[in-house]
Write a structure and sequence with these properties.
This protein is mostly helical. It contains 6 helices and no strands. Helix 1 runs antiparallel to helix 6, helix 2 crosses helix 6 and helix 4 packs antiparallel against helix 5.
Length: 184
């Protein structure tokens, strides 16, 4: 009984620091997602906008990129950003080439996912296949929903992704410093 009480006193400050660090990281993620969303839907949308629904999609895309790269430390965040950039760049290049030549078609979607998977696996980045496939699926289906100038979708999503990655990396850097400074 005495040993359990002593152990509880030792662990109690550790739990507080852990809770504080988790709270800081959670609030920072939420704020960074809001910043990404607002940057795209209220700032970039004023530069170039296809439609309100496309602006909202762009905001969602930036939020996803922010969440994807926001990690526990800078090393993990940079690795996630590198992965996101590699997978997204390949996907966007494939989608852009396809959509400049053809309209959306389910067979085109499947072929692009297969090509992306093959290329990433052959260059030694099989861990990026899932991200590239998701990116390809979203870009192609959105192009199918908005077939007028569908080739613009990959270009717009590149901008959204860059904003989201930048915000996510910045938030991770700030949060790492805040939680380190607090001793968590």
């Amino acid at each position: 009984m005495i040993a359990a009480s002593a152990l509880a006193r030792i662990l109690h400050p550790l739990k507080r620091r852990r809770i504080r660090a988790a709270a800081v990281r959670s609030v920072a993620l939420a704020i960074s997602c809001l910043i990404s969303y607002l940057l795209i839907t209220h700032t970039l949308a004023h530069v170039y906008s296809l439609s309100t629904s496309d602006d909202l999609l762009g905001g969602m895309w930036a939020v996803l990129a922010t969440v994807f790269v926001y990690r526990d430390n800078q090393k993990q965040s940079r690795a996630a950003a590198s992965s996101r950039i590699m997978a997204t760049s390949l996907s966007f290049a494939l989608c852009l080439i396809y959509l400049l030549i053809f309209p959306f078609h389910p067979w085109g979607l499947a072929v692009l996912i297969g090509i992306g998977s093959l290329v990433l696996t052959l260059i030694g980045r099989p861990e990026d296949v899932v991200t590239a496939a998701i990116t390809t699926a979203v870009v192609m289906v959105v192009a199918g929903l908005s077939p007028h100038n569908a080739w613009e979708q990959p270009l717009l999503r590149v901008a959204d992704t860059i904003v989201g990655i930048g915000v996510g990396l910045g938030a991770s850097w700030i949060t790492t410093r805040l939680t380190f400074a607090q001793g968590a």
